Amino acid sequence: MNSKSLRSLFPLLVAAGVAIVLTLSILSPSGAQDEGKTKVVFIAGKVSHPSGQHEFNAGSIILARALNEQSGLPIDVKVVHNGWPEDESIFDGAKAVVIYSDGNAAHPTNGHEVKMQSLADAGVGIMFMHYAVETSAGEPGERFQKWIGGQYEGGFSVNPHWTATGEPKADHPISRGVPSLTANDEWYYNMRFPQPKTAVDIFGDTPTREKINRYIHWTPEGEKALGTKQTMMWAVERPDGGAASDSRADTGIATGRSKISVDWFSTASSGSRAWKFPSRE
Question: Are 127 and 275 within 8 A, CB to CB?
Fold first, then answer.
């Protein structure tokens, strides 16, 4: 993701984070942190790309600062660098967990699925950003679909670089205060959703040959989907009482507890509520 794209998408990312955080603090006031702040844990993946690409650590720091120092909200974001925390006590009292990392074999949750599920069962918000929305078909994919409502599935989904333009769903709380969006980025599409689809589309656009400037991991399914409007961002209310969202640009999200958790996310940038979205290289 380049800096220009980041500037375009930043309000959505901050909005999503706030939604998870504030809603969960409202729904579970007994779990409030020091000074009444709501605790959020960011897990930044290990370095895997050249400088300037997939900056998981730097990106997490920037988003954490936006929430901690600029949002004006009672939020306390803790950042864990280079993968899964060695001391899982950092999750104690957390209302949301945000993971910005590589996916598949390098995903931080690998080997920690039981802990992640326990957090989801407890109503903790879960947000996966960028490549972190990718996992394989079968059991891993089913977990992601339960946690965040969908996934990027290798061999089925595609991740070309193209320019997407549109406005977030007007009547959804996640979209409040978030302006129209145009960004040339690595927008995932043809995502794998459970059937029937449980996600609410928040943002979408139609990929065409004219809009695509780089093809990556192209598939027959991606070819067939050209000319068809795609879900670019979504939000989900989980059956366990949680909510979730995902993203295809250099981002991706899932939240827990209630749809309001997603709704409140936008508050950081707009005084409103939330959002969701995915992408990778």
Answer: no
Distance CA 226, CA 229 (A): 8
Instruction: Single out the residue of 122, 116, 112 nearest to residue 147, CA to CA.
Output: 116
Q: Which of 37, 40, 34 is nearest to 125 (CA)?
A: 40
CB 261 within 8 A of CB 280: no
Sign of CA dihedral 97, 101, 104, 108: negative
Cis peptide upstream of residue 196 (ω within 30 degrees of 0): yes
Which structural domains are found in the chain, ordered by start?
3-270 (3.40.50.880)
Q: What is the pLDDT of residues 221-245, one digit of tens each?
A: 999 999 999 998 887 777 665 555 5
Write down the pTM of the prediction. 0.78
pLDDT digits (tens, 9 = 90+) for 120-148: 888 887 888 888 999 999 999 999 999 98
Q: Please tell me the distance from the alpha carbon of residue 231 to that of residue 239, in angstroms, as a whole number.
A: 21
